[in-house]
Design a protein that fits this description.
alpha/beta; 16 helices; 381 residues; binds ligand FNR; eight-stranded parallel β-sheet; TIM Barrel; binds lactic acid; two-stranded antiparallel ribbon; single chain
């Protein structure tokens, strides 16, 4: 298996599994509890069928969309994910460069491993900053100011992670940051020498969004402990309304699922919402975003940009979400496995496959622009 042989998500996943130490592969691949929501996320797309139209003259396809005030050349963006230099030494730089090449936006995580300022300066494409709300309010204010000074285009506050999800794969492997050289870890270094050489010969692992605020001097910390100990479970609508006012720009909530919350997001002045269950990594048993999409679009779609993520593996999944009224669709593992497999070349190949699939599928659907997609194109079984 090599990059040229990767034709879909599952090929990239297999290649990533060959390249990564087991604990890191399982951190990306895994989810909470029984991983039922992880499976549902993709399965939900298979419960409805596309109904194509014919003979509409589809030689030219326009798949551009405007979302959160940003014009994107394709309706898929790279959702913010943590720790990317652990997956491949190019990390966030590879993802940002690939996103810029394909004219789409990328997210940089509060737990990113390249600074938001460097990424904003180096890559000319819309940048989302994913915000974790910490107990330390001074840290929150400093993070907001930094994002503003850097010229971040879209602020995304993640609201589904105020405590750590129960990720049993990570408990079993002992996955933590910085990646620990436990006995199992050492063994993985020996089994995956290329990964180990790259990890050890490039710049030291760091979390530049948080600078000195995450104290790792006392040893490694698990993601679950970071969420539970450092994030503020007391965060409420009043806090967020204040953030929205202070940001005074494009602001969305990531990880919202209910109609009532979507209405409140409108009321406090958010410009977007991202339906998401964090790729099944937080509350197992929570509904797939795709299954919640129609009722949320019906309730608030005329007042706020509705996006979704979770389980997207194919161009047809994207077209189904857009047909229900999503403005754009986020992907996580879809680009993370390619990143792990081959760095920037991997992410570019994955985005190219996605763009090619969307273009082909739009032609087969009889749609030359995203605007033409509607619920008439979908039937639920
Ligand atoms: C994530 N996700 C995530 N979300 C977020 O708001 N901040 C973060 O730091 C991360 N980190 C992260 C790491 C890894 C390894 C994964 C797989 C996911 C969630 C991500 O943005 C997105 O919601 C999901 O990945 C969508 O599901 P799919 O596309 O991976 O199925
Ligand atoms: C995760 C984080 C960091 O899902 O959001 O692992």
């Amino acid at each position: 298996m090599h990059l040229g042989n990767c034709h879909n998500f599952y090929d990239f996943r297999a290649l990533a599994q060959r390249k990564l130490p087991g604990p890191i592969f399982n951190y990306i691949d895994g989810a909470a509890d029984d991983e039922a929501t992880l499976r549902q996320n993709t399965a939900s797309f298979e419960r409805c069928d596309l109904v194509p139209n014919i003979l509409r003259g589809v030689e030219k396809i326009d798949m551009s969309v405007t979302v959160m005030g940003q014009k994107l050349a394709m309706p898929v963006y790279c959702s913010p994910t943590a720790l990317q230099r652990l997956f491949h030494h190019q990390g966030e730089r590879a993802v940002a460069a690939a996103a810029a090449k394909f004219g789409t936006m990328f997210g940089v995580s509060s737990l990113g491993t390249v600074s938001l300022e460097e990424l904003r300066k180096a890559y000319d494409t819309p940048q989302v900053y994913q915000f974790y709300f910490h107990k330390d309010r001074a840290l929150n204010r400093a993070m907001m100011q930094r994002a503003k000074d850097a010229g971040i285009n879209v602020m995304a506050l993640t609201v589904d992670s105020i405590t750590g999800g129960n990720r049993e794969r990570d408990l079993r492997t002992g996955f933590s940051i910085p990646f620990q050289l436990s006995f199992g870890g050492m063994l993985q270094f020996a089994i995956k020498p290329m990964w180990a050489i790259n990890y050890l010969t490039h710049e030291r692992f760091a979390l530049p969004q948080l600078d000195e605020h995450v104290d790792m001097s006392g040893g490694a910390i698990s993601i679950g402990r970071y969420f539970t100990e450092m994030l503020d479970a007391a965060m409420n609508w009043t806090d967020v309304a204040e953030m929205v006012r202070a940001w005074n720009g494009q602001f969305c909530l990531k990880g919202l699922m209910s109609v009532a919350d979507a209405r409140r997001a409108v009321d406090i002045g958010c410009t977007g919402i991202i339906l998401s269950n964090h790729g099944g990594r937080q509350l197992d048993g929570s509904r797939a975003a795709f299954d919640q999409l129609a009722e949320i679009v019906d309730a608030v779609g005329d007042r706020i940009d509705v996006m979704m993520d979770g389980g997207v593996r194919r161009g047809t999944h994207v077209l189904k979400a857009l047909s229900l009224g999503a403005k754009a669709v986020g992907v996580g593992r879809y680009y993370l496995f390619p990143l792990a497999a081959a760095g920037q070349a991997g992410v570019e190949r994955a985005l190219n496959l996605m763009r090619t699939e969307i273009e082909r599928d739009m032609k087969l659907m009889g749609c030359s622009s995203i605007r033409e997609l509607s619920r008439a194109n979908l039937r639920f079984r």
